[in-house]
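Q: Sequence in, structure out?
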Amino acid sequence: MIAFRDREDAARQLAARLKGREFRNPLVLAIPRGGVVTGAVLAREIGAELDVVLSRKLRAPFQEELAIGAVSEDGQVYLNHHAQEILGPLEEHLATEREHQLAEIARRKKLVRAVRPQASVAGRSVIVTDDGIATGSTMIAALQAIRPREPHELIVAVPVASPERLAEVRHWCDETVCLLSPRRFFAIGQFYEDFDQVEDGQMLELLRPFAAEAQKEKPVGAVGS
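A: Exactly. Output:
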């Protein structure tokens, strides 16, 4: 079932659901890399600032496409219910996988922060987005990292999501906005005509205009939180 031409088309449809709402100094936080395409369109359409929140899935042993959880840039780990049930046998694998994914997060953070200093979150309407939610692990890990930074409200906005995982994500935010949550959900890509991989260079090019705008508006001496 194709619902979206590409990530930009999906983001425009998603933005239509959010336009006209009152937000407090809105900030869109996108989960790289595909989520940055969604986030850039969403931020432009609703007049928000754009930044990223870095989280990475933790892969199951011998099944790299299967997420058993995720880790955020502050090192916090979220494990889905399947992993929690067999935590003992997974302990050594999880420690190794966590370090591997934190190294990739550090690599991306260095790239992104050279272009886009971290945006302030405190007291703002924060909209966390990705191109979809499959297991929910990376989204939940991201939300765990954002909440302590004291946003005014924490909203998850995605084009498509697994209904079961969307229900779990709702426990970690104030609101979810999702265009499509079909019962027959196998993978995010099944709902896109074009779901090509997004590279680092494309992600950085999308962030640059927002970074320049944020620097123009930022008071001298102000720092992110």
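The chain has seven helices and eight strands.
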